[in-house]
Write a structure and sequence with these properties.
Blueprint: H1 11-40, H2 45-68, H3 76-99, H4 106-128, H5 137-163, H6 168-195, H7 212-225, H8 229-236
Helix pairs in contact: 1-2, 2-3, 2-4, 3-4, 4-5, 5-6
Length: 268
């Protein structure tokens, strides 16, 4: 499949477009139904359920969008898992809104709140994992610490749901401390990644990479010739000495053979 510019769409790009389209259509349908209820229907129990459905679809659509931001990257599997968890959480919440299971359904409610907590964790973690390719040590360490804090908070929230043991006041205090630290990391880490400029990548590992000005010239020249930058570089590098710099210059002057037929010494 090609886009209007004639370029081939990859499967990752197509999958991202389909996911976004499904989210937009579902959210738009829920929003329209909510507006219709507010404009024409009486605000009874059914109307409130419709409005709750709109809110649920909107909230979990944002969660899915956060997760699918990893599509096309090394950690896209994590994003797909997070999107699936968010969809599952949305379904459980909608079942709770419309079916209203009683309080005796303990397993259902435990599963619901576990899925909601996991959806929130996956959403924030997916956004932070967009920084996984940064090479600054401070950003890498901050990312690992923040993700670890997310996992600790998730575990401390979920364990009491399934064990019915909330640990008392000290447990709540520790949970609050870890939650604050996790939120702090989620805010500070993106700011830190913006303040610390990335070191230029060394493609060969033996020296500095091209400057931004050189890269811009390379892209401009390749666009002018209608080829890719890699093809341009390949056309400029001599195949006789791969991996070594080639000295380019004007060809040596051509001396015609003497008229008497004797051989002439070759040009140096």
């Amino acid at each position: 499949m090609t886009d209007p510019a004639g370029r081939t769409r990859g499967p990752v790009s197509l999958a991202r477009r389909i996911i976004v389209a499904v989210i937009v259509v579902s959210f738009s349908a829920a929003a329209i139904s909510g507006i219709v209820v507010l404009l024409g229907a009486e605000l009874g129990p059914t109307a409130w359920r419709v409005l709750s459905t709109t809110s649920v679809v909107g909230a979990f659509s944002v969660a899915v969008l956060c997760c699918v931001s990893l599509v096309g990257r090394r950690l896209q599997t994590f994003g797909f898992i997070g999107a699936g968890v968010s969809v599952l959480a949305a379904v459980l919440v909608l079942v709770a809104v419309w079916a209203q299971p009683d309080g005796d359904s303990g397993v259902f409610w435990d599963a619901l709140w576990t899925a909601v907590a996991a959806s929130i964790g996956f959403s924030f973690a997916s956004l932070l994992l967009l920084l996984a390719d940064r090479r600054r040590t401070a950003v890498r360490i901050g990312l690992m610490v923040t993700l670890a804090l997310f996992a600790i908070v998730f575990g401390m929230v979920v364990v009491p749901l399934w064990t019915d043991d909330y640990g008392g006041e000290m447990y709540s205090r520790v949970l609050g401390i870890f939650s604050i630290l996790a939120a702090l990391g989620a805010v500070v880490l993106p700011v830190l990644s913006l303040l610390l400029r990335e070191r230029p990548a060394d493609a060969l590992g033996t020296g500095p990479s091209l400057s931004p000005a050189s890269l811009a010239l390379l892209h401009a020249e390749s666009a002018k010739r209608g080829i890719t930058p890699d093809e341009l570089v390949a056309s400029l590098v001599s195949p006789r000495s791969p991996g070594l710099p080639v000295a380019y210059g004007p060809p040596p002057p051509y001396d015609p053979p003497p008229a008497d037929g004797s051989s002439a010494a070759p040009n140096p």
